[in-house]
Design the sequence.
């Protein structure tokens, strides 16, 4: 907007907008390029990205065209805001290495996206004058442009020093996300909860589709889609009250038949089935859905199944 023309009614004065930042990405996995592309839509400017594998290089080229691929140290040299999007186990050594080589500049925003860690892992960078933020998107990523769209309404687990809290939350909002404050000590529990709900869900669905194929179902994805969609919606709305199925009803005979068939056709799934059935029984019993007189036989079947049916 030309400076000689004041903004119209209700529009913010451009001089009052936060300064746009240059953005760098260290680790062009599935997450970093998507966040950088989202920040670009908010007016920030990606200026550098680092990646090692062929997939990372290709992903960076597709998600951040015309952004140069450079070393991690060069990313920090060019960017005001650096996204550290490497695997959790690689994060501490990456930060220590960047600090030891003098790559971190005073006043530079360093954002990691690990769910496991808060800002304590960035303490070496803080001593070097960096500004530490932990912004973890509670989303699964594909490494394609669809991820940018999925960030709209996505919750972010945010941890930051109190003086940087508003800045952290503002960045999340600019990416279309919803900031959720997570205390430093609660990060591992927070991340475990997400892994339990999302990562294990993929395993359960994949196993279910394999079993349906063995049973002769030609389109297991089409069969499961409406069922799982309704189950997820019910669970999010009602919690334990949404429990249903043979375990919640106490149908011990049906559960025994399940275990027997799984041992014949997919023995690798038996342990998971029994573990989830026991957890479901405990929750159904505590919630009053499973009658105590039926629970005894059911739990006996599950114990017998865990022993390989030898009891």
Sequence:
């Amino acid at each position: 907007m030309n400076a000689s023309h004041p903004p119209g009614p209700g529009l913010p004065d451009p001089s009052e907008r936060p300064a746009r930042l240059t953005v760098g990405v260290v680790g062009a996995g599935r997450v970093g390029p998507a966040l950088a592309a989202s920040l670009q839509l908010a007016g920030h400017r990606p200026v550098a990205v680092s990646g090692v594998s062929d997939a990372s290089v290709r992903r960076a080229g597709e998600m951040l065209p015309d952004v140069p691929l450079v070393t991690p140290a060069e990313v920090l040299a060019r960017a005001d805001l650096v996204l550290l999007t490497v695997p959790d186990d690689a994060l501490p050594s990456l930060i220590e290495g960047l600090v030891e080589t003098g790559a971190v500049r005073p006043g530079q925003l360093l954002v990691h996206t690990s769910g496991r860690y808060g800002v304590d892992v960035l303490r070496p960078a803080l001593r070097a004058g960096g500004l530490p933020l932990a912004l973890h998107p509670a989303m699964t990523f594909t490494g394609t442009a669809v991820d940018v769209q999925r960030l709209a309404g996505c919750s972010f687990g945010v941890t930051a020093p109190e003086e940087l809290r508003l800045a952290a939350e503002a960045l999340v909002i600019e990416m279309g996300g919803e900031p959720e404050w997570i205390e430093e000590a609660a990060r591992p529990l927070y991340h475990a909860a997400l892994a339990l709900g999302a990562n294990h869900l993929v395993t359960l669905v994949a196993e279910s589709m394999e079993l349906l194929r063995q049973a002769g179902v030609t389109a297991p994805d089409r069969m499961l889609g409406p069922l799982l969609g309704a189950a997820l919606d019910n669970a999010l709305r009602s919690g334990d009250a949404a429990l249903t199925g043979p375990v919640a009803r106490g149908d011990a005979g049906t559960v025994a038949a399940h275990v027997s068939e799984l041992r014949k056709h997919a023995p690798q799934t038996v342990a998971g089935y029994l573990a989830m059935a026991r957890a479901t029984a405990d929750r159904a019993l505590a919630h009053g859905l499973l009658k105590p007189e039926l629970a005894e036989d059911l739990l006996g079947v599950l114990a017998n199944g865990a022993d390989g049916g030898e009891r």
